[in-house]
Amino acid sequence: METILSSSFSPLLSKPFSPTQPTKSPSSSSSSIITSSKKQVTSLPSPPPKKNLASRLQSGLAAAALSLAINSCPVLPSLDSAFASEFDILSQGPPTESYVVDDANVLSRVTKSDLKALMSDLESRKNLHVNFVTVRKLTSKADAFEYADQVLEKWYPTVEEGSNKGVVVLVTSQKEGAITGGPAFVQAVGDTILDATVSENLPVLATEEKYNEALVSTAKRLVAAIDGLPDPGGPKFKENKRESNFKSKEETEEKRGQFTLVVGGLLVIAFVVPMAQYYAYVSKK
């Protein structure tokens, strides 16, 4: 019995029992946490050094100089914008309904409406299509005739397409115009009227800046020639003769004689009247 008890309780007796078990102190854990946090803080990158006053002033002066150079630099016009007007007319093609391409922006709504009415009626009767083009300035071609031919070839590249087509070009800055067309159009109008409108209607009225009247009168003259009616004619250049401010020799001699007579009369009066007064005064005494 003693043997059994001693063998069964021997493990318990071998390890003494203590009422309080040893535990880790909170100070040790907190110290480990603080230590790790300190390591994390010390591992952060250091902030960049602050710029001194001289470097700041240098950077500010450089930025101001760059801004001044950009603002004072003149804005050069784009090369494409200089040629956009005349080249856009070529690329856009002929007008589909209006018969007018007013790129110079000089035509009124009434003029555009009148041209549309005249040309639509002509096309319905004679199967001839005429377009009117205004451009402010030409830079790619020497004159309006070359540009008109270019427009006709660009819009109607084949002979079949351009045979019954006509193009009237008015250049406002150069005060000139041109008319070109296919074989059927030229034959219907005739060289005489074509030359007359180019030398009379377009340049004369354009010189007076009557652009609306220039195109309307040209259109009426072309329609009259195609219909076989009498030519309404065109305006003529006005000869502005300046009157001379200088007088002729005869007028000068006449004025000189009159001036001499007047001066002589005044001199006589100036001497005679005082003498007469003196004589009357003396005679009374």
TrEMBL record:
Residues 1-53 are annotated as: Disordered. Residues 100-224 form the TPM domain. Keywords: Membrane, Transmembrane, Transmembrane helix. It comes from the Eukaryota. The chain crosses the membrane at residues 259-280. Residues 1-43 have a biased composition (Low complexity). PANTHER family: UPF0603 PROTEIN YGCG. This is Polyamine transporter.
